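Hi all, long-time lurker, first post. I run a small reading group and we've been trying to get comfortable going from sequence to structure in the token notation. Rather than ask abstract questions, I figured I'd post a concrete chain and ask someone more experienced to write out its structure so we can walk through it together at our next meeting. Sequence below, copied exactly:
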Amino acid sequence: MAVAREIIERLRGYSTPTVANGLEQLDVRPWNQGFMGPEIRCLFPELGPMVGHAVTATIRAAVPDTNRRGPTRSEYYDYVLSIPEPRVLVIQDLDPRPVGAFWGEVQSHVHRALGVEGVVTNGGVRDLDEVRELGFHFFAAAVLVSHAYVHLVDIGTPVEVGGLVVRPGELIHADKHGVMTVPEEAAGRIEEGIAKVLERERRIIAAADARPFDLERLKQVFG
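-- Answer (accepted) --
Happy to help. Here is the structure in token form:
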């Protein structure tokens, strides 16, 4: 299953906190779930929101892949293309701490050609200037110098990044504030929730900015 492209493009017009607010109104999951922790940082906030279906993989970089048990490059590319566009790579680094970057200038060019808009990882990235110029999104826990012995371990399985479990094909919404998943069944209704929140926020802000300030009016608006 996939979220319709027109819905994705509409969601791209909202910040990630606004989408989170809309989801809360729909009451589809607990309000303290569905988003990554602050250790996953947006490296290029000027690129705006990133929205796409999750392509999941795990990597290691601390030691060589001497047994060659991971997926081949061909198998990996075929898997990437099996996920509906637009795509977002969500990669779990299995090393205790990030050592080598899977992501840099070359991989960003390759994955852009594969319909990928960016990467989310608890590992590291590099080649920041070149990738920023390309317009490819980086959300990562670290910036690294080397790729070390980086290699794929597995593809197409649930991964945990920033404390959030992400499954293949799940819709990702991310911007300078952080990364969250959007339940497929709610994606087409989020704007209903957003409209309710925006209307309430407008009334609160109007009451707070009114001069002379009226505390009783503000209390009434908050209900």
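A couple of things your group might point at:
Strands lie at 41-42, 50-60, 87-93, 116-125, 137-143, 151-155, 159-161, 164-166, 171-175, 178-182.
The two ends are 40 Å apart (CA to CA).
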